Protein: LysR family transcriptional regulator
Organism: Galactobacter valiniphilus
Amino acid sequence: MFQLSHLIALAELHRTGTVTAAAQALNFTSSALSQQLARLEAEAGAPVLERVGRGVRLTPEGLVLVRHAQQIQAELELARAEVAAVRGEVAGVLRVASFQTLLLDVVPRTVQALAESHPALRIDLVHREVLPAIHGLLAHEFDLIVGEEFPGAPAAVVDGTSREDFLLDPLRLAVAPAEAEALDGARLAELAAHRWVLDPAGSPMGQWARSHCRDAGFEPVSGFEVTDPLLQVQLARTGLSPAFLPGLVGAEHLNGVSLLELPGRPHRRLYSLVRQASAEAPAILAFRTAMHASARQLRPPVAVGAVLG
């Protein structure tokens, strides 16, 4: 008889690729995870791992067990969702991961609405960027995460998940008011000599920003590499550097900053992602409905002009 916990341990090792990463995802020590895998081999009567250099890989028998473990996990989660749906109960704990700009307005408004409409549902929020949030979703650390997709860079399809788009968020140029007046109707390339406020090059926002500048004919020089949009606003406010800002940074944060529309009026697409087996769970449906309603209430800050390509 197979122990489900042992099968889950093997499936997590398959997903993460190393014993250390799998142990961290499951909140085990590496030695405890190794013990679980050894017990699974005894249950299977066959090796499930083999040494490859300093690491391990799954044997054919191990891959068979992973496939069944994933099916069992999905069926159990589906069963929980269907039982909750039959009871019609929106209750329990929903673990949600989101990046910062949504946490400024949309997600708190969603949580407040759910506290009024479904007081038996508790929302636990965690600040995570998209890629680690996806890993957390697949490891059952989170029940729902929020993702973003930038122009020209479609998000990868994540097997075993359900995606719902809920917002097109405009991307604008933020500068000091004196600069905005001079730049209105000018070309973005006129800012080529500036030192920019940019997200890290490996981040989705950072990749898009650099690509947008290249399309305008120049390579932006990063004077400040910052992930916090409110700090980006502050740097733009002082006139030190231009910055790209999403519309979710509301007008209440933009005193002393002017926004200009960018060539092509680009937007990023925001979406929620859940495991496919839990997509119809009442708590998931309630959160998505409330978040969509909160997003519809948004009014992006008004741009005072536009730069050209």
Notes: DSSP finds eleven helices and twelve strands in the chain. The mean pLDDT is 89. The domain at 4-83 is CATH 1.10.10.10 (Arc Repressor Mutant, subunit A).
